[in-house]
Amino acid sequence: MNTLTDHLTKAVAHADALAKPSTAPTTQAIDPRVLTAEEIIAEDPRHHVVLRDDVHFPQPFRDHAPEIAMLFVYGNLDAYKNLLKGPSYAIVGARRASAYGREVAYSLSNELAAAGARTISGMALGIDGASARGSLQGGTPPVAFLAGPASEPYPRSHRLLHEQITRAGCAISITPPGILAQRESFRYRSKLIGLLADSTVFVEGSENSGAIHTIAGAETAHHEVFAVPGPVTGPMSTGPNACIATGRAHVARSIEDLNVGAPPDSTAPSPSFNVLTPRDRQVYDLITQGIRTPREILEHTDDADGRAIATSLGTLELQGFVNRHDNGNYSTLR
Q1: pTM over 0.85
Q2: If DSSP codes are grouped into helix, strand and coil, which group holds residue 265?
Q3: Which residues share a beta bridge with 247?
Q4: What is the DSSP letter of 258?
Q5: For residue 123, how many other CB atoms are within 10 A of its CB?
Q6: Which residues have a Cβ under 8 Å from the Cβ of 60 and sit 6 or more positions away?
Q7: For residue range 110-136, what is the model confidence (pLDDT) as tens digits?
Q8: Residues 6+ apart with CB under 8 A from 248
């Protein structure tokens, strides 16, 4: 079984487990849905897959979601890679949002995008849709994290929005092409949005809103959570107001509250070399010695292959330790 087939098999099994948690995975024959997914991916160049061992697989998913075998990206792959570099904000809330909530979601996302930040939402009705439209107008394409396949717009009424997002940005999902999303898929997706985004902003919703799952994901990854205060008599403001009152979220009245582009806290620890593997650190040390091309680095390591070197270089670049130049050489940033 090749690598893609193997990962797709795990992804389909996980989708089944979300639908029927008691269902035992089948290991006999290749599921025909896996073969269908492979065909769909091969036929459309806008389909991309990011395997768990890929350098561009999200670190929060490595740390907190071991069950995810792969990520499906539909649209602009560079937009997905830029998402990982941050800053990114999950803008979430009610589907049946008020005019106030939709206006705030649009405005915050528009200003975040204008400042170069990327927003993430589920592309649902209400807050999600308003957020995506605001980002598109702000100049930094948003990312839609879908419960179903990344290439299939949901809800269907957001077909045009999906096309606009995937033309400039991208849609992502853990659900393989051709697989139907189940009810639990939406809750799980909401949690993953919180894991993935650097910060989460709860705009509007009840205390039982699906946004609470997003906040739970953000808390798991120790990411910042913000909430937009609303009228105390408004049923759609009970969720954000409660999060603020209990200290679960910081107040977000405008983009100024979201720390966009704020200078690093001098009391906060700088990124540590402890996050690097011994191989990553060896590659970094070689670059500091003036050995700056992948070929030269490979020649100075006894027990590595080209793939291992490429993985370490990708990790060092994503973590901000090195910079890759147009000529393919690397230099250190710290």
Answers
A1: no
A2: coil
A3: none
A4: G
A5: 23
A6: 195, 196, 221
A7: 999 999 999 999 999 999 999 999 999
A8: 215, 219, 225, 227, 242
